[in-house]
């Protein structure tokens, strides 16, 4: 387990001083193992998961008999909400059903099937060179299916409001030249397309779809599971596509850097997305405003980070994202042509 994951465990128990990590393990060994397996005399190990969530502590019951399946136990401050069950209904085995096992010292406990696989972030960081192209295409294809699966017709909603974003921008001192004006232009374009945005299909939207939260088969690139659906809710498709950017580039000391075959991977993702949407009973035209929704989701996510992150990295993410929006490229090309 790396230092970052260890720090997450430490932070979880520092905020909940009634028990420690070993208390949880002891309860799992002495109580939950008997309830879940009912195998007298069998031997089990209880180990922390190598990958921890933001608001929970996760350990794994590992039977020493390989014929028995491992079970994941999660301790949480708050109970899981309806989104986990809904995600399981939509995505099946990719989102194992979490069953309540009651409480331990005020912590809510849930048991779920162990999903084999490695977080995609760990695969990317461990790779000494770029992953094979077919491997990456497989992962991004599966991701397109996941973000579009279960799409529903939009429902009437409140008028689009970007006042919170505008308030932060107005009171923030930008360091990257022209970034503020580009963000404001982007907001203006989004507002002009509000009617089209309201027609986008809605999907159960994972609010933290980083490569840490989906597991892959390292040999094939196929996604084997998607974790941490707590807090997901229905939003227009595209709202969380800023997480897709993490498959198309990376942050360096100097700023965001696109990978060499970004255009090919991005085109493949959207082609697959359109196929999935059509299979859900929609028309390709129903995705007309998806880039504007992607832009809105990116600004909604990163603009507050301007205040939360003190290292200026949020500006670099915003600059890299805006650089690849087609409607901003067209606008800038149009300005250049008028100046000639």
Distance between the termini: 57 Å
Structural class: alpha+beta
Radius of gyration: 22 Å
Largest sheet: 5 strands, antiparallel
Helix content: 40-55%
Overall form = globular
| Strand count | 12
Order of helices and strands: HHEEEHEEEHHHHHEEEEEEHHHHH
Task: Give the overall average pLDDT.
Answer: 91
Q: How much of the residues is beta strand, in percent?
A: 15-25%
Figure out the total of helices.
Answer: 13
Strand order of the largest sheet: 1-2-3-5-4
Poorly predicted tracts of residues:
336-340
Task: Describe the protein.
The protein has 340 residues and is of the alpha+beta class. 44% of the residues lie in helices and 17% in strands. The protein is built from 13 helices and 12 strands. The protein has a 5-stranded antiparallel sheet with strand order 1-2-3-5-4. The longest helix is centred in the last third of the chain and has 18 residues, at 262-279. The model is unreliable at 336-340 (pLDDT under 50).
What tags apply to this protein structure?
five-stranded antiparallel beta sheet, three-stranded antiparallel beta sheet, 12 strands, 44% helix, single chain, alpha+beta
